[in-house]
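User: quick one, sequence for these tokens?
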């Protein structure tokens, strides 16, 4: 048989859990609205206001087409920059200014004999004392 104090503790824990769940649902709803607003802003920025047009991201930008064709391009499309800025603004909660954005090399581009040897030299240069 449980005591009244234990029952009160269980009820308080259930109430606190329900409050946390409600708060999480409110936050999720706010995030959904933010994503919807960002999608709307992206559609307006890219000029896709009609419903019969293709959705954002369904067609290749010039930079993506060059990459798909095998040409190396350091340029990042304006649409991509807008999406990155919008995501950073949503994350930070205030307007942000992008100072630089660049593409990272692929795994094949990043690995060369020179870079592997350089990493090996740096990693073996540390004087580790055995205890």
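Assistant:
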């Amino acid at each position: 048989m449980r005591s009244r104090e234990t029952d009160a503790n269980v009820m308080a824990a259930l109430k606190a859990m329900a409050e946390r769940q409600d708060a999480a649902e409110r936050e999720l709803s706010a995030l959904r609205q933010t994503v919807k607003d960002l999608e709307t802003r992206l559609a307006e920025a890219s000029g896709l206001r009609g419903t019969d047009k293709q959705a954002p991201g369904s067609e290749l930008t010039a930079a993506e087409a060059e990459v798909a064709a095998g040409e190396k391009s350091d340029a990042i499309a304006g649409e991509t920059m807008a999406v990155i800025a919008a995501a950073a603004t949503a994350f930070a909660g205030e307007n942000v200014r992008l100072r630089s954005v660049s593409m990272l090399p692929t795994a094949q581009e990043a690995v060369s004999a020179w870079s592997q040897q350089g990493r090996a030299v740096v990693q073996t240069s540390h004087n580790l004392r055995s205890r």
